[in-house]
Amino acid sequence: MLIGRAVRCATRLRGGGTALPGLVMERINPTFLSRVLAPLPHGVAVISGTNGKTTTTRLVVELLRGQGLQVLTNPSGSNFSRGVASSLLGQVDAFGRLTADIAVLELDEAHGVRFVTDVRPRHSLLLNVFRDQLDRFGEIDSTARLLHEIALRTTGTVVLNRDDERIAGIASSIDGVPVRYFGVDASLLDRFPGDDDLHGRGADRRAGDAGADVLLTAMDEHRATFEFDGRRHTVDLRLSGSYNQLNAAAALAFVRAVLGDEVDEQALLRTLSDVTPAFGRGEVITVGGRPIELILVKNPAGFRLALESFDPAGCATVIAINDHANDSRDVSWLWDVEFDRLRRAGVEMVTGIRAAEMDLRLRYDDIHPVHVEADPRRALRAILSSGSDLPVRIFCTYTAMLQLRRHLATLAHVARID
Amino acid sequence: MTAPLRLVHLYPREMNIYGDHGNVLTLLRRLEWHGYRAEVTAVHRGDRLPPDADLLIGGGGQDSGQGLVESDLLRLGPDLTAMAADGTPMLMVCGLYQLFGHTFHTSSGRVLHGVGVLDIQTVGSPERLIGNVVAVSEEFGQVIGYENHSGRTTLGTGAAPLARVAAGMGNNGSDRTEGARYNNVIGTYLHGSLLPRNPTIADHLIATALQRRFGSANLRALDESSTGEARRVALTRPR
Questions:
Q1: Residue A116 belongs to a domain with what CATH number?
Q2: What is the reported pTM?
């Protein structure tokens, strides 16, 4: 334990590497995770799915803290077993004891299975399955199977998205533990297109059959209405984007499943309205009075939902595409996104390693980006020195987002990722 | 006014993975930029092939999608074989490339039967071939794409390779061939999407379709500077 903590301290000083101390600890003591997590009164709650893991985990953590619980989590987006072990090391005392009530962990779909084999979660929340980084996870069906494994290892309650066929389908093979659902009202379904709707299935799309514990029934830009316990609650949100409003419904359903009758409803809604976006997920960084919004896009469904969620008018749109292993080496996915919605307002800049590919993609939708600049630092500089005061919205892949945040940190205050 | 060129997209619901939608979009846009009108007809399971089809496009799918379309594709087999023999241009990528061959023995032990338009056989392997590919074709020049497939495909004597692999694996990782051609049918493992990255192939398919329909094809010189830059960058990327 002390060794792990020392490594954690050393890597912090070096300035990076959230997973290394966990790796060291895991090598030395493979039962570390299960042993440390076992005594938590509310057990371990895990959140997984293709899109929305980080924001939903943040929501669940904040909602539980708002209910007075001490919550452990892995907030660095380092969502693998080792990252989890690393974060825990920072939160145990010298005797290896945790003082928390519950651990709320974001699990990567692939590494999640390994984690739940070591540590059985009491509660699990499964958000969605989209095609994502096929070069890494293979096919969508195999991703669904991985999430299925997480559900099967759950000892308490499984919370599922009733409107995602592959997620809702998991319920049929779960035996002995309760299953609850979150969902959207049928009138809002067309605001949440899935992969299967891209190629002409849209017309026969319908809401899932299961009754939802929490239902998203109405939304506009910064306000959403949720129905639970037979009543509707309208909440002002600091999160933007329709998909984050659905993530909020998921988080509400999950917290209700974890706490049962103990939930203080008023506190729950109050906390919900205060939750701010996670880094790079709708995060706004202000430079010289000019708001710069970073919106992470990782896959066709996420990009389509993001385009659908935000009005491009009155905004300088930037798209930043990298193709490192954490982004998807294969950039084919850009061709599964329709960019028509950006045509009228235009695209100010494309940047990132694959800026040229993005430029080509946009031209096939009759959109001609004003600037193509592969280097994100130069791209930012050009935008900020253009004399325009329009807010900037940057759709960016994962590593492009990290780069942009780093450059922005030299110009303005940027919250630390920890 | 003459009827628009009829593009036929095979099984877009089941076989639509890895951005192959970009191939259809590219054909549509380039036809428009060349001054022609075109329309896309989707052929779903149970549908008939439009009798006026000028160009057929098909993409990759998941194993489950491939299983779903297998028997329906066999129903269309005789028509597809006749059209291919007659010279109709077609582009089949990945999953449908495999099913345009004779058989696909999957790594899980299933045997999928193809329509045999292309003289190729495919055998699945537990290890997927994944990564950027550069191949060279005498006719089309450097062909750039991205592969992600478990099948190892070998060509029979009735099929010619689309290109020779310079970087990457291609059909099977051993004989350096990539893709297959028979008459005006092109099969390939390359996503990317293939056609926007490789406009020489796109315009070849377009010119063949126009030639067959109108007896001539008048293609304009298009501004390919964005394409050139995207290709230049793609060539610098690791596997």
A1: 3.40.1190.10
A2: 0.88
